[in-house]
Design goal:
This protein is mostly helical. The protein has helices at 73-86, 91-94. The protein has a single domain (1-87), classed as Pectate Lyase C-like (3 Solenoid), CATH 2.160.20.80. It is built from 2 helices and no strands. The N and C termini lie far apart (42 Å).
């Protein structure tokens, strides 16, 4: 799905399934993306300022030049944890197999 430069500010996008979507340069300011699947999406230069982000699936995602200004601390920490775990660095990756 190509949403390059889309203007989606304030949009209600709860639970959307945009696996692999191109959201490069998209304006998602204040959008509600709770529970959305954005795995392997291109969010380069996207603006997520003030977006609602709990439960977002960001596996396989890179975030170059993404603006998260105004996002809550909890949302940003959640994003970082998801990215860290998706790259095989989370606690699950350190468990020993019997």
């Amino acid at each position: 799905m190509d949403l390059t430069g889309a203007r989606l500010e304030g949009a209600e996008l709860t639970g959307v399934h945009w696996f692999g979507a191109n959201l490069s340069g998209a304006d998602l300011t204040g959008a509600n993306l709770a529970g959305a699947n954005l795995s392997e999406a291109n969010l380069s230069h996207a603006d997520l300022s003030g977006a609602t982000l709990p439960g977002v699936d960001l596996s396989g995602l890179e975030l170059p030049d993404v603006s998260l200004a105004g996002a809550t601390a909890a949302d940003i920490v959640s994003l970082i944890r998801k990215l860290y775990t998706a790259r095989g660095n989370g606690p699950e990756a350190r468990r020993e197999t019997p």
